[in-house]
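Anyone opening a protein record will find just a pair of labelled lines. The record below illustrates this layout.
***
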Amino acid sequence: MDKPLKTPPPYPIASVDHALRAATVLQMEGGATVSQIAERLGVARSTAHRLLAMLVYRDFAVQGEDRVYRAGPVLELAAHSQSFVSRLRAVALPHLQRVVDLLDETANLIVRTGDTARFIASVECRQTLRVGSREGMVFPAHRTTAGLLLLADLSDEELRDVYAPERYTDRPGERPDLDALRTELKRLRRNGCAVNRERSERGLVAVGVPVRDTGGRARAGLSVSMPSVRYDPQRLRSLVAVLDASARAVERDLAEAV
């Protein structure tokens, strides 16, 4: 049976429709210039430029040195791992809640796309002074707890590709020092956990462990975040123990779901 034609909403918002159509073009067709987007949408170049600038701001698009806009981290995640991320999030949420129940701190689940780390789930704790939900946020991978853990799982060749100089031609200041990063990742591999002390956000400390698939590959990071004034290094071992147990539970449930 043929699907019925979609009926437009009674009060369409043109700017939202234009942004969604532009994002679809970038995701499905690989990239476009301002002029091409303007032509496709039937809008002025200035309007197209503003739409693309907002997509870049929200990580739905990136602009290369060739001035072509392409799908950003949010759309790359949806395009390449939608079903896996959906299963992972559904499986992990009860375990994130258990982490919160045990530690009374905010728990997060993070995946990596290129050189960025994206929070795909977040459960806030009940304390008045707490770290708020980070769900949907995107940060540089090397500045987050889980991002570092996922980078630590890469081979040296894969790491070089992620941080290839040509990827940072228009933003050289954002490329990390690879020698220093390799040293840090080596330590993380040995420890099996990561601690982020105000590296991504001032006043915040996070502790994380990797979540692996059945092949042993790190596919996500499970972390707990808290205000730095409440972090006690003496609690690190107990924090990691709770996170490790929860990560193993997520891995078991994910394997069963697959």
